[in-house]
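One chain shown below:
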Amino acid sequence: MKRFISLLLAFLLLTTITAYGEDTTMQTIVPTWDHVKPLGRTHMLEDSLWLAFSGSGAEFAFHGRYCSVTIGGDVNAAKANNEANQVRIAIYVNGERTVDDMIDAKEKTYTVFESDDAQDVTVRIVKLSETAMSTCGIKGITTDAPIHPTPEKARKIEFIGDSITCGYGVDDEVAEHHFVTGTEDVTKAYAYKTAAALDADYSMVSISGYGIISGYTATGEEKITAQTIPQFYTKLGFSYGTYQKKIAASVKWDFSAYVPDLIVVNLGTNDDSYTLDHADRQEEYRAAYVEFLKVIRQNNPQAKILCTLGVMGDRLYPQVEKAVDAYSAETGDTNIACMRFSVQLASDGYAADWHPTQRTHDKAAEKLTAEIRQLMGW
């Protein structure tokens, strides 16, 4: 029944609304997976392709003269004095970023392409900011020609991480400044850069401040159990706000929709603020890591898993290695490996809240790309 309603809605919205030139008809198209290639985890909700996690979005191509895209904002979009939590969105046309904007209204429409002559056009829509603060939806694509999904790539990677994967503060290279979504840009972070270098499709599961047993704690004593990635790994995302009255964590992710060849796990930076040098806490992290690897494997039976840590500190990295060894010994699964990132250097600067700069992300991407090439034969 739900599928019937979705198809009926798509049919009703695929209507002629105006004319462009003498012989060209405009159509507004619902961005279902029949029309666009999803980037990362997306979900069709009423008339919108819902975007939550960093890097989620859509890509499509057409041969025509005009294209506009309408983005729907969530409950946080139009709130007063809420600029720090709004979605940051980017739209690329033929590889060039033509839109970089904050979604500060219920709906915003962008004319992304306009020409006197019909051309081959590829449009890529990317949610630059992370899931926790805000989500959004692609509500409609208006063109003068049919659109179709771009081809899937031969390689697929999933990245599971925290603020480093999200690109926290990467556009604000002042260490003493704090978090705002407007300075997040996942495309400038190591994970997105690695996927691009390997010509791979990607999916991000990342939330700033989150860990495996604890989120970031400033006291070193309080365990922040609410901020852990494993509880949201099987979901569309997590957000404090709603989009069309729904929360992202209410949507169960269908793992058959995106089947990665490789899964890169980069979790432990926030746990380290709690575990510190306490042996019992580090052991708790190691044991929980093993259990999370089982969840990852259950949902991705064929993928290679690469466990990493170290960009913002590598104190817990030995526990990552121990977790992988313990997991393999218990399960017999050897389709898994480890890699230690180099710790960021003061000489490369610091972004907001002492996060990695673009230079540090570039170095991390170079190291990870080389490791993956060797590991996967890519």
Q: What stands out?
A: Residues 155-376 form a domain with the Rossmann fold fold (CATH 3.40.50.1110). Helices lie at 2-13, 163-166, 190-197, 272-275, 279-299, 317-331, 358-376. Residues 255 and 299 are 6 Å apart (CA to CA). The chain has two domains: 2-149, 155-376.
